[in-house]
Amino acid sequence: MLSINIQGLETGDFWTWFIILTVACIASFVATFVFFQRARIIEDTPTSRIRSAAQGYVELEGIADDLPNNKLISPLTKNACVWFEYEIERYVGGKHSRWVTEEKDESEQHFILKDDTGQCLVNPVDATITPECSVVWYGHTRQPDFSTAPQGYRSDSTVFSIGMGRYRYTEKRLHASDHIYALGDFRTYQSARQIPSLNEAISDRLKRLKKNKEWLLRHYDKDGDGNIDMDEWERARKDAIRMIQEEYADSPEAGIHVLDKSSERRLPFLLSAYPQDDLTSKYKMYSWGTLAAFFITGAIATYMLTARLA
User: pTM value?
Assistant: First the structure.
């Protein structure tokens, strides 16, 4: 019966499904090795202490903390945190109903990781971050009503607030005092001027500002004309540069330790609120899941092609 249905498919529909299954098969194969490699790296990399950590790729564990005089507030729930990621989606009905992303962003501000021997700055840009705190809720306006947003959830809570509404809001956070597992490139500098990522961070922040027009309009469109003129952009640019410079300058240690993304692509940059044993188990589970997906999608694609040509 299945072979008759496959043979009866229009040529365009058949090749569309075949290509989708083939791509999914290849993606699952690649993901299997990526997840397995991450689990092995976590298991094989010894945990270092910040004061005695070698320069280069290291594994650290410690407590997250805010930068002095530079507190971060999440945009949707207005909770104090050291890192956030949020997404606002709108439901589109009809034949092909789906959730469409209206707005999405994550923080780029550095935060402090400290253990009983010292502390370092963590640059979260390009990190694979696994927080424990994730809240989801619904509403009827694009910007959520603060009074209805889930409040008070800490790093030990994953909350799905089921409700009605055209809009869906998702926010993930890391908080000060969260226990953080980190895997990345560790470097020590004598002053902020020596940190090579400073200018890169400024450049990246400005590029993201230019793309996020709605955020710029909300914060810098002082005359309310719906456009960002040269003076308004200059204020936004100066604020972005000042904030990043303060992040580096506020490090309380004379020698500034920085944890960042490794220049070697095969070495993952991981930040997790889960203990490393839990994180290893997650990646192994993902690896087995994608391996199963590889065999299933590969078998279906092969069967479809064989039935079609029969």
Answer: 0.71
